[in-house]
Amino acid sequence: MSTLNTSSAFPEPTIVPRAEHGISRAQISPNALKVLYRLKDGGFAAYLVGGGVRDLLLGREPKDFDIATDARPEEVRSLFRNCRLIGRRFRLAHVRFGNEIIEVATFRAPHDGAEDEGAGELSEEGRILRDNVYGTFEQDAWRRDFTINALYYNIRDFSVVDHTGAMADIAEGRMRLIGDPQVRYREDPVRMLRAVRFAAKLGFRIEPASEAPIFELAELLFDIAPARLFDEVLKLLHGGVALETFEQLRRYGLFRALFPLTEQALAQEEQSYPMTFIARALENTDSRIAEGKPVTPAFLFAVLLWEPVRLRTAELMAEGMAEIPALQIAAAEVTSEQLRHVAIPKRFSLPMREIWALQPRFAQRRGKRVARLLAHPRFRAAYDFMCLRAEVGEGDPELCTWWTQLQETDAAGQQELLQQQATAEPARKRRRRRPRKRARKPGPDA
Ligand code: ATP
Ligand code: MG
Q: DSSP readout, 340-359?
């Protein structure tokens, strides 16, 4: 099957000279240029590769600059003081310049069974466990995922080297997996997510042979380490086209492998407000990213998992549990199930759960509770979340209006709103509250 894997069988690459492509050094990060020149002057091959070249050819601003070289990681390290070697599965050199990290990868060989000294490793299903077999320039090109990601900008003569017919694919807006798609997706199922991510972001279409296997192989993602999937999910949601990406992920059956409980909930009630809820949140994310505003993963995860949490809460309440404990239990259950698939770090999962836990508290608009909620560190996110729910018809739209006014008005206005609330609240409700302890005093068990 490894038709492309014997080094002698590679077709000649096409060299696109400087005069025939649009990439100029002025568009490349000065730090990436420094690394390229230093490698070249050290006698090594040095190329810009991957997203950097692809995006520059498409007239887009690259997210980062990756470099490929024939220097071994240790050799790269000896050239730069500001360099660290990282990664076990895929060993890389990171050259750091302040906030910017330039990734330098040594040319890799494909996996064709003849692994040397355990540097490369395949699982029984053909999945790449380790990818540290060094290889030639040609081999490095052919082991990459999509042709459009396998273009090299040569710092020696500023040409672009095209081994795989990528220039034609770029011109046609086409994503094509290098080699046999079945084999390549099995080697690394994350490539299916990458296919969707790049297609959505670049507005490219995935050519049929690369597209067809995804539907059938999507569930291979269940075997991928949850920590790696977390990184991928962030890239999928923070790429500026989260809504389109989400829709495509669902269409290919990939979303189910990332958020199984959410998919289950959505499949039950297609075209209903949970769908609109997610869509609105993703649209907001996309416009915030377009405006250069920060976005928080905690909020997005809270949105994506809300429907399973809400359904489970309702179930528990139907069994007689009160809202607050039901919500708490549902949140814990849904989170722990989700973590088996996508490892959400605590710094995001804790605020996510706070956003949920605060939801019932917006209905309590009397006395000190209001000030306490306003002062809560997660108030803003929880408020946005509540308004989003109200916007799609879940819960009381008046709540969003009231809390919005409360934040926009001055102290006198706030008093007035609180006063209205105190008198507007039905007497029946007030009576029910009275027997409860007003303020929790620090007792022996506090
Ligand atoms: P961006 O940085 O814009 O997300 P990119 O294409 O640069 O896109 P990276 O994840 O930075 O993506 O990877 C750099 C390059 O490494 C890719 O362009 C591709 O050539 C190669 N690569 C990355 N992940 C894989 C993979 N799973 N399988 C094969 N090649 C890969
Ligand atoms: Mg990159």
A: TTS---HHHHHHHHHHHHHG
Question: Which of these, 177, 207, 208, 202, lies nearest to 192 by C-alpha position?
Answer: 177
Note whether 409 and 310 are same-domain residues. yes
Number of domains in the chain: 2
Q: Provide the angle, in degrees to the nearest 10, between the axes of the packed helices 242-251 and 273-290.
A: 140
Residues with CB under 6 A from ligand 1: 50-51, 63-64, 66, 144-145, 149-150, 188, 190-191
Domain final position from 129, 152, 183: 183
Measured in Å, residue 412 CA sits from the centre of ligand 1 at: 56
Gap from CA of 442 to ligand 2 centroid (Å): 54
Q: Name the residue with the closest Cα to ligand 1, atom 7.
A: 51
Residue 71 lies in a domain: yes
The CATH number given to whatever domain includes residue 102 is: 3.30.460.10
Nearest CA to ligand 1 atom 8: 51
pLDDT for 370 equals 92
Tell me, rounded to whole angstroms, the distance of Cα 70 from its chain centroid: 31
Query: Which residue spans within 52-172 are E strands per DSSP?
Result: 66-69, 83-86, 92-97, 100-106, 120-122, 128-131, 151-154, 160-162
Tens of pLDDT along 116-150?
445 677 777 777 777 778 999 999 999 999 999 99
Q: What are the residue numbers of the active site?
A: 64, 66, 145
118 Cα to the center of ligand 1, angstroms: 23
Structural domain contains residue 245: no
* 179/272 same-domain check: no
Ligand with smallest separation from the Cα of 51: 1
Same domain assignment for residues 75 and 176: yes
Asked if 120 and 128 touch (Cβ cutoff 8 Å), the reply is yes
Q: Is residue 243 part of a domain?
A: no
| Angle formed by the axes of helices 379-391 and 397-408, nearest 10° | 140
Q: Please tell me whether the overall predicted TM-score, pTM, comes out greater than 0.85 for this model.
A: yes
| Residue that terminates a domain, selected from 183, 215, 241 | 183
Q: 309-324 pLDDT, tens per residue?
A: 999 999 999 999 999 9
pLDDT over 70 for what percent of the chain? 91
* Residue 33 and residue 177 share a domain: yes
Q: How far does residue 233's CA lie from ligand 1's centre (Å)? A: 15
Q: What is the pLDDT of residues 188-237, one digit of tens each?
A: 999 999 999 999 999 999 999 999 999 999 999 999 999 999 999 999 99
Neighbours of ion ligand 2 (CB under 5 A): 50-51, 64, 66
CATH number, position 366: 1.10.3090.10
The reply to whether 426 falls in a domain is no
Residue numbers of the domain that contains 333: 267-420
Q: pLDDT tens digits for 318-375?
A: 999 999 999 999 999 999 999 999 999 999 999 999 999 999 999 998 888 999 999 9
User: Are residue 179 and residue 271 in the same domain, yes or no?
Assistant: no
